[in-house]
Amino acid sequence: MSHSAFRSRSATELVDAAVQLARRHYAPLITLGALVAIPGVLVGVVAQLVMRGSEATAMTGALALLLFPLMLVSSCWTMVGFGAYVKAAAAAYLDGRALEPLVALRAALRHGWSLIAGNLVAGLIVGALVLVIMIVLMVVVAAIGGLLTAVARLQMGSGAAAAAGMVVGIAAMVVGAVAALLVWSQLINVTAVIVLEGLGPMDAIRRSRELVRGSARHTAAVLLLLVVLWLVVYGTTLLLATLLLQRFELASSMAGVLTVLLYPFFGCLLTLLYYDLRIRHEGYDLELMARALEQAPSGVPV
User: Fold this and answer.
1) 225-230 long-range CB contacts below 8 Å, 24 or more apart?
2) Torsion of CA 113, 92, 209, 179, to 10 degrees
3) What are the tens digits of pLDDT across the range 129-140?
4) DSSP state at residue 98
5) What digits encode the pLDDT tens for the residues 243-256?
6) Which of 21, 103, 147, 274 is spaced 20 to 30 A from 198 at the CA atom?
């Protein structure tokens, strides 16, 4: 790895670097993606079968109850699987060679309970904060909307009142989305901290917040690009599959399967974001350069 690779990057540079890293190590990373995605795909197939037979069998209720633990197990496996992704991508970034899929999974499984607990707690924190933000926004929107509507009716009529209410509603949605993104950005490094630093769930949450401190907008910009790219790919795939299959349920399942192709990019981006924050706030690039110099053969430029 060249010295120039160990530097802080802008959000767009991180996305480009993640694409390049994923492309160079795509074979082991996409194999890992398949292993991570299999439980979710199977649960999706079972759900489709249960929904399709909802009117044809009295066992549907019992089968539906089975879906919850299956979905829970699938979600836990995905949390562990993305830990494996970060571990494999970190090896690719630092050493120029991604871990083999089974090796990465074994490494992540050693932190399995921490990954599950850390991500569940982080998800609950994000969900609770977003809920509070949305409730506050609803109260504010109701108050402002009522005031604007009253003024608009007096001065410009009911059409203007409806337009004013719509503008306030859209503004609230934008504010809520930005707030949710900023909250999510605080805890996005939990997985990386657990598998790369070996911390427990609560320590990983605190560590993630420390890493993001002072770089919240930068981190949120990276996550926004990730979300936009995912929505574009998933939305396009869903639309084409729906037009082809003429069944939304099957199209949704197919789109979900095809987005597995993006897993290498997601794993690389989250890994590079973690290292980027350490480089920005802890001078970690100096440690990485020293490591590269130690590992380089004598007389060979790094």
Assistant:
1) 225/11, 225/12, 225/15, 226/15, 226/266, 226/269, 227/181, 229/15, 229/262, 229/265, 230/259, 230/262, 230/266
2) -100
3) 878 877 877 777
4) P
5) 777 776 667 777 77
6) 21
